[in-house]
Structures are given as C-alpha cells and as structure tokens.
Amino acid sequence: MDIEKLTDTVDEELSFIHNILSNEMMTNGFPLIYKGELNHQITKLFTSMAEQKILQTNKEKSLRMKVFHIMVECLQNINKHSDDYNDPINRIGNGLFFVGEKEHSYYVITGNKINNEKVEPLKRRIDTLNKLTKEELFDLHKNQMQYGFLTERGGAGLGLIDIVRKTGEKLIYNFIPLNEESQFFLLKVTVGNKFV
C-alpha cells in the first residue's frame, strides 16, 4: 500500500475516533479516559476510580459488579495482547481505555496496537463469539478452563469469552491500519442490566 495513502487513511480514522470520543464525553456520563502503559498499578488505580464513580450513581450492586469485572477483563486484554509496549522484556501493553455511561448502560471502549498477523484470527474469534448462544458460550468457557493452553504472554483465551458471557451483548470492533505491520484494534463493550 502507498505510504502517503495509508497516512491519509490513518489520519481520517484517528479523526473519526477523536470525534466519537469527544461526542461521548459531551453527551454521556462520567467519562474516564486513559492512554498509556496498562500495568498492574494503573489497572488497580483506574478500576478504583471508576468504581467510586459508579458507586455515586446508586446503580444496582449486580450492575456495578458486572461493570467492574468487564473493566478488569478489558484492561487485562490490553496488558497481555497489545503489541505496543515500552519494556521489551516484560511486554506490558500500552493502549487506550475509556469508560462512560449512557442512559441505563455503561460502556467500555479499548484500543491497542496489534500486529497484522493477529487481525484475521481475532476477527474470526470475535465473530464466532458474537454468534454463540448463552449455552454455547458456557460450554466454550468450560472447555477452555479445562483444556485451554496459556499463550506466551499468560493468556488462556478466556477474556473475550467471559466478557460476552457476562454482558450478554455482542462485541463491537474495528481495525484501523497504522502502517504496513500493524493495526489499531478498537473494541466497544456495552454493560447493561440484561440478565445473563
């Protein structure tokens, strides 16, 4: 792909993301946004801040717990699977993390860089999870718990399964080309009062 054309595409996509986030911040409740390394301390601090904000809204305890759980899963996904990191030995992922509220739902938006060879397998995985029934998700989760293997970065492939199971909602995603080697993976998770 022509680098100049690629740069224009990236600029347009980043402008789109900026507009979306700006609109979310102006029209919806308590946006918390972080961009950078998502190590254990940052994850703990961010989830604590979000938890305090959610407690102030007097929402049901079950919804608060669900939101908290989804936030932790999303943060861990960036930590383990981002291909952007400052420390090549520990490989703690960098990414974008955004939490907000709209009407009776919360949403978590994450973004992180991934290498091109991971894009198609990740698309297939998300598309498959989005099509599964509640029972099929339960069976897949159980199977992964029993027979799944750990990746080189410590993941067992349970994160996305768990997110879909806990929310009962489809995962919304997009991949934005950054350069010839990598793309920016955006994921939006909606967390509401849906019984799961």
Could you list some keywords that capture this structure?
6 helices; 23% strand; disordered N terminus; 196 residues; Heat Shock Protein 90; alpha+beta
Question: Would you mind describing this structure in some detail?
Answer:
With 196 residues, this protein is an alpha+beta fold. The longest helix is centred in the N-terminal third of the chain and has 25 residues, at 3-27. Helix 2 (40-55) runs antiparallel to helix 3, helix 3 (61-81) packs antiparallel against helix 6 (159-167) and helix 5 (134-147) packs antiparallel against helix 6. It is built from six helices and five strands. Strands 1-2-3-5-4 form a five-stranded antiparallel beta sheet, sandwiched between helices. It is 50% helix and 23% strand. A hairpin with a 4-residue loop joins strand 4 (172-177) and strand 5 (182-191). The chain has a single domain (3-191), classed as 2-Layer Sandwich (Heat Shock Protein 90). It starts with a helix and ends in a 5-residue tail after the last strand.
Q: Nutshell version of this structure?
A:
The chain is an alpha+beta fold and 196 residues long. The chain has helices spanning 3-27, 40-55, 61-81, 119-131, 134-147, 159-167, and strands at residues 29-37, 94-102, 105-115, 172-177, 182-191.
Secondary structure topology:
Layout: H1 3-27, E1 29-37, H2 40-55, H3 61-81, E2 94-102, E3 105-115, H4 119-131, H5 134-147, H6 159-167, E4 172-177, E5 182-191
Identify the CATH class.
Alpha Beta
- Strand line-up in the sheet with most strands: 1-2-3-5-4
Overall pLDDT confidence: 77
The total domain count is 1
What would you call the structural class?
alpha+beta
Superfamily (CATH H level) name: Histidine kinase-like ATPase, C-terminal domain
What is the quaternary state of this protein?
single chain
- At the fold tier of CATH, the topology name is Heat Shock Protein 90
Q: Count the strands? A: 5
Number of helices: 6
